[in-house]
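Preliminary data (for renewal application), 2-acetamido-2-deoxy-beta-D-glucopyranose complex.
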Amino acid sequence: MKGHGAAAIGGLLATLVLADNTDGVVQWGIQQRQAPPSSTTRIRRRASTFEEVISNQEARGGYFASCRMGTPAQDLTLQLDTGSSDIWVPDSQARVCAARGTQGCDLGSFNPSRSSTFEVVGRNEFDISYVDGSSSQGDYFTDVFEIGGATLQNMTMGLGQQTDIAYGLVGVGYAVNEAIVGSTQSLSSIYPNLPVNMVNEKLINSVAYSLWLNDLDSSSGSILFGGIDTEKYVGDLTRIDILANSQNLYTSFLVPLTSLTATSPSGSDTLTSRQFPIPVVLDSGTTLSYLPTDLAMQVWKEVGAVYSPELQLAIIPCDMQNSKGYFSFGFAGPNGPKIKVSMDELVLDLATSGAPTFSAGAYRGKAACEFGIQNFTSAPYLLGDTFLRSAYVVYDLVNNQIGLAATDFNSTKSNIVAFPSLSAPIPSATVAQDQSEATNKPSVTTPAYVASAGFTKGAAADDKENAAPGPSPSLGLACALVVISMLFGSGQVFPASR
Ligand SMILES: *[C@@H]1O[C@H](CO)[C@@H](O)[C@H](O)[C@H]1NC(C)=O
Ligand SMILES: *[C@@H]1O[C@H](CO)[C@@H](O)[C@H](O)[C@H]1NC(C)=O
Ligand SMILES: *[C@@H]1O[C@H](CO)[C@@H](O)[C@H](O)[C@H]1NC(C)=O
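Predicted structure:
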């Protein structure tokens, strides 16, 4: 996401293109992919071919999709981002691409001089910075833009002439969050961004889309503009109100997280936080999820994750992906939707080139993985891909509502229902009752951690001797005992002393 202190935009890939713009929807296949190697990409899940050291930098990851732009059309693969609102592409002359010789940027770059329809509309007016410190600057331009077989003749986009990111993004957030609005401090500079332009061009009926990221172990999901697919979720689709910012503007997909429970075969715990109700942004451009530290520490204690000061990350033995436990995230009060996120969605590879292992402590000898729930110091907190994969999420930017349901992993069926008109509510969704109760502050208690034993039991079944004990007080979330040494492809070894 744009302009926040915590997270990461990611490096996956994309290709599948499915088009269906005859009945008021446009579907765009997205594929999970590894970040291409480049000087600025940081390793994330399944980064087996990357030769980079993870220091304490945020990992890059994400969902990418293919599109075409210019006349004649040039092919590019762009990252989908609900946390920002501009489309931008790396200029083929940008140093990050040109430095790679004729090969250029792996996911493509745009050569404006080869497009007869290219037109600069704002010289040096494009300037965006992302949460992980990366950025892109250059001109705003208009050109033809094609996605999923749908063509927009006059799409305003940013040209990344100075950038340290080797691939472009498709920001599908609120137009009010466009980079130009931030730099001019004026709402009058808003232009129709992708979802708005699709409505203007009558490709879809409402400024709305649905996101199905699918399983961590599956390579593809989809974004459906203008409709929902009732075969991609199970149970009820419930709609809740998006929170406005302090100026009463809707700028990001901020919703109130009002409860979190941990459940395993040994029981269930209600986790509490001084921060409830917690404003969280649903951000597909962020790999991990970030909660307030008091709550994140309870989550870590349930599963036996430990915070590594060296990596500035909570880490966990990789075999915990077999854990039978799950977390249930509740939104918009006691009658709002609840989304279960199981442990196999929360244990991510740190790197595959030379498995990092714990070198001391209770987990000695075990492979270390990144945990999907991290901590952050201040609002807004983020629910990124580690949460979003378990949910089917409908973004309604006209009524300022989010539809949430449990995802149907690996569904191959489809039943698409278009929004019938511009202000129509999310189809097939029921509104959450008593959302005013979302503002209640629950009392803060210490969980009994009855679920904890069940989280770790069975996860390391083939390794009983060395199986990690349930998190014990002596292990300590402050992590004083955790010493890890990590061996990466480059041969660099972190000091294993502490
Ligand atoms: C293209 O879009 C821009 C920005 O929305 C607008 O100012 C311009 O008039 C449009 N041009 C055409 C030919 O429609
Ligand atoms: C979905 O498919 C992937 C890849 O085939 C598989 O690894 C995963 O276990 C499947 N998930 C579920 C929930 O069936
Ligand atoms: C996360 O928690 C750890 C352990 O309590 C703490 O040292 C660190 O400063 C926290 N990070 C943030 C960003 O709050």
